[in-house]
Automatic annotation (TrEMBL):
Alphabetic keyword roster: Cytokinin biosynthesis, Hydrolase
Originating organism: Alkalicoccobacillus plakortidis
One Pfam family hit: Lysine_decarbox
Gene3D superfamilies: 3.40.50.450
Protein name according to UniProt: Cytokinin riboside 5'-monophosphate phosphoribohydrolase
Assigned protein family: Belongs to the LOG family.
Amino acid sequence: MKRVAVFCGSSEGSDPIYMEQARKLGALLADKGIGLVYGGAQVGCMGAVADACLEAGGEVIGVIPEKLMNVEIAHSGLTEQHIVKTMHERKAMMADLSDAFIALPGGAGTLEEWFEVFTWSQLGYHHKPCSFLNVNNFYDPLLQMLEHTIEQGFMRPAYQELIITENSAEELLEKLHQFQPLELSKWGN
Ligand code: AMP
């Protein structure tokens, strides 16, 4: 695992634990020699994960659309910052550059990014692990919704194995290392 994409809030969240754990993950990635790919912003948890990774000597690659450079305040101290035209290009480049995906707590943008890579995984467009770092049990309601989706017959139970969830960053990285892709695709071939 050379590089991991981290999706997370452009906000700080209401509890200091969100920024703390974003920093912790950034520093841990640097310690493990794993590069960070993220949305290139200086704000909120996004800025926290990037700053901590850089401070610990890690590689940080940002991918930011030009329209958002001012709003999200493009980070100027990254190893590499890619400025792209659209949100679609941003997500595609982040996915291409990464070997695994982690969502920290965040808003609709974070969820959208995570669900896109997860649905690509279900469809067999890639075989990279998709995970939640479940800080403060933030993702419990979403995990319940996914269980409900399975119970109601809208998602195969096997796809639950594609979703890795951990409360500790150390254990999450370990699980990402051990991940084995499923053999079946959404349409059973
Ligand atoms: P949020 O979780 O809403 O704070 O957003 C986190 C990051 O996701 C920000 O950098 C947003 O610009 C980004 N984002 C929001 N919507 C999208 C989208 N449709 N495609 C790509 N990135 C997005």
